[in-house]
Design brief:
The protein is mainly β and about 500 residues long. The protein has 3 domains: about 200 residues, Alpha-Beta Barrel (TIM Barrel), CATH 3.20.20.80; about 130 residues, no CATH class; about 120 residues, no CATH class. It is about 10% helix and about 40% strand. The protein contains 6 helices and 37 strands. The strands form 6 sheets. It has an 8-stranded mixed beta barrel, surrounded by 4 helices. α2 packs parallel to α3. About 0% of the residues have low confidence.
């Protein structure tokens, strides 16, 4: 069995010139405690990945300050992109405590998230000082530090390193860190150098890619394994319309364009959407919440704007659309959560903070949109296509209304207003205030005309029937001092 030459790196190494350095594996510091992330971690990790090196990521424990659960969750949160690619490691250096149970709990939680057994790093003295039998029983490997008594020369020359560490609890060790002042050609500075007792296949075994019997298993993927022959996949023919959009899908690439409420992506296949392109009606800003990257806003997009990432295996987790000239409706399908509600400009579709991938998206321009001005709270956001503008069961009057017709033709409006009576607003647009604002006067009755139908929520009686906006029918009351409280509108069938 061969050995692999391993270096480990933290922030003080900076960005190394890995191409000029001769080593087999890199273990890079990711996190410490619950408040530190190595700023060089991802750049070093990605460079080593490109060069085909074996990889690990480690967490420096601050076990006297935080719980094992808090530190494990912090590490998992900030290293999810490395699952299946790197062996996780717990760096145990705090000699003020022998809290083996803390270490065991951290290892168990990270094992569950990563789908492989983490290693634990300690000095020879710490290993032999305490009873680690519970960690050994859990089959967690040991990376032990015992330094040589000389200054090693370049390129892992261990000629004078002496005997390997002798530890009480483990029958074998996974790695021996034999120096902290090692040197490699191509790097101007000291390096922690270790040897891994095994070859590339043995490393993959620790990573969870094979069992001791040699049978193949796959590391746990937080996005699930793609199920090509399950669920529903989008239409495989380009369709464009008023608003068109396409998705970049895991293990598929850019799928066909769809439009006007048709689904892009899939359901029931565990196939994340990693990026979007949208051809909007007019002006559009899009914000997405991405794995590890958080929120990112794309201003004034065009059909060529890539919203998200390509080639980084990074899922989209939530979506928000904003526009100065068009009201949109959109919803997303998330793993384990299903379809979100239909959202309107400025609302988040999808749940953030749950690490759930978006798998499908539907977008359309609303047929008819409307804003209510409500007692005590002012304007609602734009609501659309059967959504409620106003309130119910709160005894609040609706004082004014604005309507934006996108597919429902010209709109005309008359309103009966408290203390004023009937007022004819004629042909209205999205800026016409039907009613009053700032005067504390209730809307009592409305008469609307357009290619849509609507209903109203009236004080004391609740919702009316859906009624065609024919310019004749009225909803509400006159002479009874009853407030309108909410309205809903939808395109005529």
């Amino acid at each position: 069995m061969g050995t692999l030459r391993v270096i480990d790196a933290a922030s003080h190494q900076g960005n190394m010139n890995q191409k000029a350095m001769d080593f087999d594996a890199l273990i890079v510091k990711a996190t410490e405690g619950t408040g530190y992330i190595n700023p060089y971690c991802d750049s070093e990790f990605q460079e080593a990945l490109k060069l085909g090196k074996k990889l690990g990521v480690y967490h420096f424990a601050r076990n006297t300050l935080n719980s094992a659960e808090a530190e494990a969750n912090y590490f998992i949160k900030h290293t999810k992109g490395y699952i299946g690619k790197a062996i996780p490691v717990l760096d145990w250096e705090d000699k003020r405590t022998s809290d083996v149970a803390w270490a065991l709990k951290w290892l168990q939680l990270v094992e569950k998230a990563y789908g492989c057994k983490p290693l634990i790093y300690m000095s020879e003295a710490v290993v032999n000082a305490y009873n680690w039998s519970s960690v050994v029983k859990g089959n967690y490997g040991l990376w032990v530090a015992k330094y040589a008594d000389y200054i090693p020369d370049y390129n892992f020359n261990m000629a004078g390193a002496g005997k390997a560490p002798s530890v009480k609890w483990w029958s074998t060790i996974a790695l021996w860190q034999w120096t902290s002042v090692g040197r490699l050609n191509g790097h101007n500075g000291n390096l922690d150098c270790s040897v891994f007792y095994g070859d590339a296949a043995t490393w993959d075994k620790y990573l969870g890619k094979s069992t001791s019997s040699g049978s193949t298993t796959k590391p746990v993927n937080p996005d699930g394994e793609v199920k090509n022959n399950s669920g529903v996949f989008q239409e495989k023919k380009d369709r464009t319309g008023e608003v068109s959009y396409q998705g970049h899908l895991r293990q598929y690439g850019w799928a066909n364009w769809q439009c006007d409420g048709a689904m892009i992506g899939s359901t029931g296949q565990n196939r994340r959407i990693e990026a979007l392109r949208i051809k909007p009606v007019g002006q559009m800003d899009v914000t997405v919440h991405m794995k590890n990257n958080g929120d990112k806003t794309y201003k004034n997009i065009t059909k060529d704007t890539v919203i998200g990432t390509v080639g980084e295996s990074r899922r989209l987790e939530a979506l928000k659309i904003e526009s100065s000239d068009t009201v949109y409706l959109y919803r997303v399908h998330q793993r384990d959560l299903g379809w979100s509600k239909w959202c309107v400009n400025g609302q988040w579709a999808g749940v953030k903070g749950k690490s759930k991938q978006i798998e499908a998206v539907e977008i359309k321009a609303a047929d008819i949109a409307y804003i209510g001005h409500v007692q005590g709270t002012g304007d609602t956001i734009w609501m659309a296509d059967s959504m409620t503008a106003g309130t119910t069961n709160q005894s609040k009057r609706l004082e004014a209304l604005r309507i934006k017709s996108q597919h429902c033709g010209d709109v005309y409006a008359k309103a009966h207003i408290q203390g004023i009576g009937w007022k004819d607003f004629g042909k209205i647009d999205q800026n016409t205030i039907i009613g009053t604002e700032g005067d504390g006067l209730r809307l009592e009755c409305l008469c609307l005309k357009g290619d849509f139908e609507w209903r109203a929520h009236i004080q004391g009686t609740g919702w009316t029937q859906w009624t065609k906006a024919d310019g004749v029918a009225t909803l509400g009351t006159v002479g009874q001092s009853l407030r309108m409280e909410a309205v809903e509108m939808r395109a005529a069938e």
